[in-house]
Amino acid sequence: MKVRVIGAGLAGCEAAWQLAQRGFEVELCEMKPVKFSPAHRYEGFAELVCSNSLKSARVDSACGLLKEEMRKLGSIIVPTAEKTAVPAGGALAVNRQDFSDEMTHIISNHPKITVVREEITEFPEKNTVICTGPLTSDALAEKIYLKCGGRLSFYDAAAPIVTAESVDFSVAFYQSRYDKGGADYANCPMTREEFERFCNELVNSQTAPLHEFDKLDVYEGCMPVEVLAKRGIESVRYGCMKPVGLTDPRTGRRPYAAVQLRKENIEGTMFNLVGFQTNLKFGEQKRVFSLIPGLENAEFVRYGVMHRNSYICSRACLDKNYMLKGSENVFFGGQITGVEGYIESAVSGIIAGRALADRLSGKEPIKLPETTMSGALTAYVCGWENESFTEFQPMGANMGILPPLERNIRDKREKYAALAERALKDLDKAIAAADG
Hints:
Blueprint: E1 2-6, H1 10-21, E2 25-29, E3 53-56, H2 62-72, H3 77-83, E4 85-86, E5 91-94, H4 96-108, E6 113-116, E7 126-130, H5 138-148, E8 151-158, E9 161-163, E10 173-174, E11 185-190, H6 192-203, H7 225-229, H8 233-237, E12 257-263, E13 270-273, H9 282-289, E14 300-302, E15 305-312, H10 314-317, E16 328-332, H11 342-360, H12 373-382, H13 412-435
Parallel strand pairs: 1-2, 1-7, 2-6, 7-16
Antiparallel strand pairs: 3-5, 4-5, 8-15, 9-13, 9-14, 10-11, 11-12, 12-13
């Protein structure tokens, strides 16, 4: 039987992989390079735009746990990310181009997947997973709007990238916070005077105009650094510029504030400014970010940008397997559902792809326990049918969405380890029941 997946991002690749691995003929529709969204530039699949990090690799963290669950569910994204990884302390970060190229090769060469490079403008009738992302083209977005009764819009912001050779390492130093993992981050330390001067320039700098929408509705997880600073400079000092866990080798003490730079590629020739998503004008980015000690002569290979990000009200529209209520097997996956983050998008594609395959095979889709990170995230996004829809916001993986343990554990690390152990045991049982 032939099925269709629209969009070859993280979720679309996972959905197509799940369906193809179960023997279905998959038509994977991707509009690049015929048409690019405002934020995408590369022709390959699974292009990472905002960051090259898939967050923590530790299984006792929310994102690390989710990646481990994805492995058990047959993910193709996770092993490919590990194959193309760059050093990032305790995080899983990738070389973006290598990752995209590898994903494109794997998906395009699957014998059950046919890639169609064209823009889809009509809403599908049946047997489809829509993974068009937060930058869904206008024509299809309008059809989705009509089918789903409305969608919300906000903006994502991407951080700038600088060359490593332009960083002054007589000031900047390598260290991961609390020395966890390798010394994979470069840190630019600031004194109080330097920090206050920087923040003053940041909050008074000029931002780029936003042409597509009148309202700027920014999700907390991708808050532009200048917007965060306007809430009060301590917001950035204990946000993206927190100095805790770092020691300036010049003084032997913790700096007053610090900007972390993360490797953008395995060679370490480029760095992105961690947490510095921004909508400043390009000239202002050069001027203001060059005030950061160590970046006075920084060469910017990419400036930060802001772009549209849209998602449907999944609680009103989707069931617990991401299927559009009342449809004939039309599913959604990825950030358009209201999941926030790379791996969260990917896992929704896994769930949607598996569910479509199961329904077409006459089986009940897997019932993900809410004690698992994948199950809890799905329940949050899709499962609260009787809750108010007016305050619905995107959600990423976090330990707070998991049900509490039966016994109280005060130590946070021990508690998270116990939550992860419970999640993986419960997921094993659910997979065995679904496949048995």
